[in-house]
Write a structure and sequence with these properties.
18 helices, eight-stranded antiparallel sheet, single chain, eight-stranded antiparallel beta barrel, alpha+beta
Length: about 675
C-alpha cells in the first residue's frame, strides 16, 4: 500500500480524499494556488505545496507544476479528484513515465472513454444505443449551425472535454446555435484547456440516471446501483439521490450489466460512472462515461456501505476487488444537496466573498456506511444519517476563480420520504451568511409535490421555476406555527430586557401577555400564557404549545410547536425577527397593541429607481461590451458579457432603449450592482 499520496485538486473533494487516506494510514500532500493559501484542504493535509497563481490554467491544471510537487514530496501516487486533471490522459501518461501511480483508470481508458466524442463512437461500435448527434470536430459557428439543422433542433452543444455543466448550451434555433457554439468553446478552453465541441440531439423530458461501476486490473467489475440526477439547472446537477425512484429491478440490472461490459471493453480499472438518459418507458440511452470519481458519489456510499475513495486507492495499488456483484445490496435511501455560492434571487448568479457565518448541521452516522466501518465523520449514531462534505470553514472565502460549490449535504434514512424529511431539517439547520447561496431554493425543491412523488425530469427546474426563484409562499398552517414561535421567542427577549441591572427602584417593567404578530401581510392578536416548560400562544381561535431552549442571540432556534419540530434561522430586527424557514424569508414583527396601531400609519420606504440602468448582477470580469453610446437597442439584444467562476454570462436588453452612458469596458472587474451602462 502507498505511504504517501498527493491530491491534485482543491476544495471539498481534496478534503474528502484526505479523510479516507488518513483512515488508511496514508500521508497526504495538498497543492494550492495563491487563492487557496488558507484553504481547508491545505490545513488538513500532512504537507502542502504552492503551485502558482489563482487561475486554474496557471496552477491546478498545469501538469509540470503538479509533477514538480510530486518530485519534491516523494508522493507515490496521485488522486485527481474530479475536474481539473482528473480525465486528462496526458497527466496519466506523465505519472506513468515518472513511476507514480494514478488513482484512476489507465491512460488508454481515459483516452477512449473520457473524451465525449470518442466514447460515443465506441458505444456505437459496441451496439449501445446512443443519442443522435455529430461526433466529429466542429471548426466554426457556421458549421455548428449547419450540423444543428441536419440533426434537428433542439440540440445540445457540448465541450468534448467538459463536465460539471461547463461548456454546455442548448440551442433551439440558428442564432442560439451560433452564439452557444462560441460561448461553449470559450468556457471549454478556460476550464479544461481543450476547446473541442460536439453537437447532439437534445432529448426533451428525459431523466438523467447514472450507474456507478468499480473495476480492478484483474478483470473483475461490479456496479453499485444507480443515482438519480434529474434535478439540474443549466445542465449542472443540483440534487441527487440513490437509488432512483423511477427504475425497477430489471432496468437497474440491464443498465448495470451494460455499464460494466462497456467499462471492461476498454480495460477500465478504478471507480467510474456511466451516464444515461432514460425516457418515460424506461428506455435508456448512453450519454458518456466519466472516468473519475463523481461529485455525487456519497449517496452511493450511504446506501451500499462502500467507500469509493478507498476502493480507488486499493485498485491503484494493484489489489483485487474485494467485492462481488452478489455482495452489493442497496439499503435505505440517500439524498445529496449541492450548496452553491449563487444567489437564487438574482437568477442564480455567482456570489463570492467571505463566509461570515458557516455552521453546517451536526453530522449523524447511521446506515450501511456506518455498519461497514467506512463512515468518514466523527459523529454520533442514530436511525438516520447526516453527512456534510465541504472544503470551506467559518470565516473563509469563496473565490471567483473556481467552482461555486460550498458543500455537499447528504442525508440517509430507511425510506425515501424519511430521507427527504431529514434533508429538510438539515437545510433548515444549515447557517450560511456573507454570500448568496441556494439553500432557500433547495428547500423549495424538497417541498415540491412533483419531486416528492418522484415524477421529476431534467426539465423540472425549467418547468416549475420558469421565471426564476423569488422565494416561497408557506402554507397557512406553517405561517401560524411560525407566528406562535415568534411570539414566544419575543416574550423571552422582553423578559431579558426587563431584568436589566442598574434600574431605578421605582421603575419596574412588566412584560405583557397580549401582542400583535405581523408576518406575510397578516396580523394576529396574540395572547401568551407562559410557564416553566414553555408557552401557550392563542390567536384566531387556535392554540399552540411552544417549547424550546432557545435564548436571545442564538441564530438557530430549535422548537417544538404542538409537539412537532420547527427549526428556524432567526436574526433580531426592530420589534421582531427576520425568520428563514423552508425557502421563505420573513420579517416577523411582534408589537404591543398600541405599537401595532402606530406602525400601520408609518409610510413605506420605496426602493430607488434603477429601471434605466444596467447593473452588474454578480462580482465578475467584463469580457466584452457589445454596444456604444447612442446605440438604439432592441429587447433581447446582447449588451455585454460578464465572466464569473469560469462561466460566461450574457446580459441582454429588457426593452427597447437608447444607450446614453457606458461606465465599464472589457477587462474591468465589477462588484454586484455596479452600473455598467445607462439608457433613456
Amino acid at each position: 500500500m502507498f505511504k504517501k499520496i498527493l491530491i491534485a485538486n482543491r476544495g471539498e473533494i481534496a478534503c474528502r480524499v484526505i479523510k479516507t487516506a488518513r483512515k488508511m494510514g496514508i500521508q497526504t500532500v495538498a497543492v494550492y494556488s495563491d487563492a487557496d493559501a488558507n484553504a481547508l484542504h491545505v490545513q488538513m493535509a500532512d504537507e502542502a505545496v504552492h503551485i502558482g497563481p489563482a487561475p486554474a490554467n496557471q496552477s491546478y491544471i498545469v501538469i509540470d507544476k503538479i509533477m514538480e510537487a510530486i518530485r519534491s514530496t516523494g508522493a507515490e501516487a496521485v488522486h485527481p479528484g474530479y475536474g481539473f486533471l482528473s480525465e486528462n490522459a496526458k497527466f496519466a501518461e506523465a505519472l506513468e513515465a515518472a513511476g507514480v501511480a494514478f488513482i484512476g483508470p489507465p491512460k488508454g481508458a481515459i483516452e477512449k472513454m473520457g473524451d465525449k466524442i470518442t466514447s460515443k463512437k465506441i458505444a456505437q461500435e459496441a451496439g449501445v444505443s446512443t443519442v443522435p448527434g455529430y461526433m466529429g470536430l466542429i471548426e466554426d459557428a457556421d458549421e455548428a449551425v449547419r450540423i444543428s439543422n441536419d440533426i434537428g433542433y433542439p440540440v445540445m452543444i457540448k465541450a468534448s472535454a467538459g463536465g460539471g455543466g461547463k461548456g454546455m448550451r442548448i440551442a433551439w434555433n440558428d442564432d442560439e446555435a451560433r452564439e452557444g457554439f462560441q460561448s461553449s468553446k470559450n468556457e471549454a478552453a478556460n476550464s479544461f484547456g481543450d476547446d473541442r465541441i460536439f453537437i447532439e440531439k437534445f432529448v426533451t423530458q428525459p431523466r438523467h440516471i447514472e450507474i456507478q461501476v468499480l473495476c480492478d486490473s484483474h478483470g473483475n467489475g461490479i456496479y453499485l446501483g444507480e443515482r438519480e440526477c434529474s434535478i439540474q439547472r443549466r445542465n449542472q446537477k443540483v440534487i441527487e439521490e440513490a437509488p432512483s425512484p423511477f427504475l425497477d429491478e430489471a432496468t437497474r440490472r440491464a443498465m448495470g450489466e451494460q455499464s460494466v461490459a462497456l467499462a471492461q471493453a476498454v480495460d477500465y480499472a478504478s471507480a467510474g460512472t456511466v451516464e444515461f438518459i432514460v425516457d418515460g418507458d424506461r428506455n435508456f440511452y448512453f450519454l458518456e462515461m466519466n472516468t473519475r470519481l463523481q461529485v455525487e458519489h456519497p449517496v452511493t456510499e450511504l446506501i451500499t456501505g462502500v467507500d469509493l475513495v478507498e476502493q480507488m486507492i486499493r485498485i491503484a495499488a494493484g489489489e483485487t476487488l474485494g467485492l462481488r456483484q452478489e455482495d452489493v445490496t442497496l439499503t435505505g435511501w440517500a439524498m445529496e444537496s449541492r450548496l452553491y455560492a449563487e444567489d437564487p434571487y438574482r437568477g442564480f448568479l455567482p456570489s463570492i466573498g467571505r463566509l461570515t457565518t458557516y455552521r453546517p448541521p451536526q453530522e449523524v452516522a447511521a446506515g450501511p456506511l456506518l455498519a461497514s466501518g467506512k463512515w468518514q465523520g466523527d459523529a454520533p449514531e442514530g436511525d438516520h444519517a447526516v453527512r456534510n462534505d465541504t472544503g470551506v470553514y467559518d470565516g473563509g472565502e469563496i473565490s471567483m476563480f473556481y467552482d461555486p460549490m460550498i458543500a455537499k449535504l447528504c442525508t440517509w434514512a430507511p425510506t425515501r420520504d424519511a430521507a427527504i424529511e431529514e434533508m429538510r431539517i438539515a437545510l433548515d439547520s444549515f447557517e450560511v451568511e456573507g454570500i448568496g447561496h441556494n439553500i432557500p431554493f433547495l428547500s423549495a425543491v424538497y417541498d415540491h409535490e412533483k419531486f416528492t412523488s418522484g415524477r421529476m425530469t431534467t426539465a423540472f427546474i425549467e418547468e416549475e421555476f420558469p421565471d426564476g426563484f423569488d422565494g416561497v409562499d408557506l402554507p397557512d398552517d406553517t405561517l401560524d406555527r411560525i407566528a406562535a414561535a415568534a411570539a414566544a421567542m419575543y416574550r423571552v427577549c422582553e423578559i431579558r430586557r426587563a431584568q436589566i441591572s442598574g434600574r431605578m427602584d421605582n421603575h419596574e417593567r412588566h412584560v405583557g401577555q397580549d401582542w400583535v404578530v405581523t408576518l406575510a401581510d397578516r396580523a394576529h392578536d396574540v395572547h401568551i400564557e407562559a410557564d416553566r416548560g414553555g408557552a401557550t400562544v392563542t390567536f384566531d381561535g387556535k392554540s399552540f404549545r411552544v417549547e424550546s431552549d432557545w435564548t436571545p442571540g442564538q441564530s438557530l432556534a430549535r422548537l417544538t410547536v404542538n409537539d412537532a419540530p420547527l427549526v428556524l434561522k432567526v436574526a433580531h430586527v426592530s420589534a421582531g425577527f427576520r425568520v428563514r424557514h423552508r425557502g421563505a424569508d420573513l420579517d416577523v414583527r411582534v408589537r404591543t397593541r398600541r405599537q401595532a396601531e402606530l406602525a400601520r400609519l408609518m409610510p413605506k420606504k420605496l426602493p430607488p429607481d434603477t429601471s434605466k440602468m444596467l447593473l452588474c448582477p454578480m462580482p465578475g470580469l467584463i469580457v466584452k461590451v457589445d454596444v456604444a453610446v447612442g446605440d438604439e437597442v432592441q429587447e433581447g439584444q446582447i449588451l455585454c458579457t460578464v465572466e464569473a467562476m469560469k462561466m460566461e454570462n450574457i446580459l441582454r436588453a429588457e426593452k427597447k432603449a437608447t444607450v446614453t452612458a457606458i461606465h465599464a469596458e472589457a477587462g474591468d472587474s465589477l462588484s454586484v450592482d455596479d452600473v455598467i451602462m445607462e439608457f433613456e
